[in-house]
Amino acid sequence: MKAVKNILLVGVGGQGTILVSKILTSGLVKAGYDVKMSEVHGMAQRGGSVTTQVRYGEKVYSPIIGRGMADILVAFEKMEAARWIEYLKPDGIVVVNNYEIPSLPIAIGKAEYPQGIMEALAKNFKTIEIDAAKTAMELGNIKTQNIVLLGALIKAFELNEIDWIEILKEIIPEKMLEINIKAFEKGMGL
C-alpha cells in the first residue's frame, strides 16, 4: 500500500473512542504498516468531544488529518458526525452510531438536539448507519458499543486481513473479552 489511509474516530467522553483507536493502531502495526495516531480529549471527562486520528500506510509522516482528507469517519454519536464531517473526503465513508448524547445546553433545555443529521449525511456521503447501542444492549453491556463500531469499521474499510480477535485478546481485559469478541463479530455483520 503506497497511499496513506486516514481514519477519523469521533465521539463523546466515555464512549471508548480512544480504546478503539488503540486496538486499530495495534492491529495495523502488527500488519506491517507505518502508523501514526493522534488523540484529543478536550472536555472528555465532562461529556465533551473526543477525536482520534489514525493514519497508516507504507510511510506516514504526520498523525494529523486535515479537512477533506479522512477516508472514513466513524462517529460514535450522531451530533459528532455532523461536527466533524468537513474532515471527510467527498468520496469518503461515514459510519455513524445512531445514538444521541445531549450536550449540556440540550440537557438543561437551552437548546434542541439537531434534527435531520442522518438524512443530511446520507444525502452527501456514503453513509453506514449502525445502531451500536441496541446491539450492545442485546449483548448485555452498553459499553461494548465501541467494539460494535470497530467491527463495522473493519468491515466497511475492508481491513479483514488482520487477526482482530488476536488483537482484542491482547488489549481487552480477560473478564470483558468474551462479550467484546461477540460485539466485534456483531459489528462485522452490520
UniProtKB/TrEMBL annotation:
Keyword Repeat assigned: no
Annotated ranges, domain Pyruvate/ketoisovalerate oxidoreductase catalytic: 13-188
Keywords: Oxidoreductase
Protein name: Indolepyruvate oxidoreductase subunit beta
Organism: Lutispora saccharofermentans
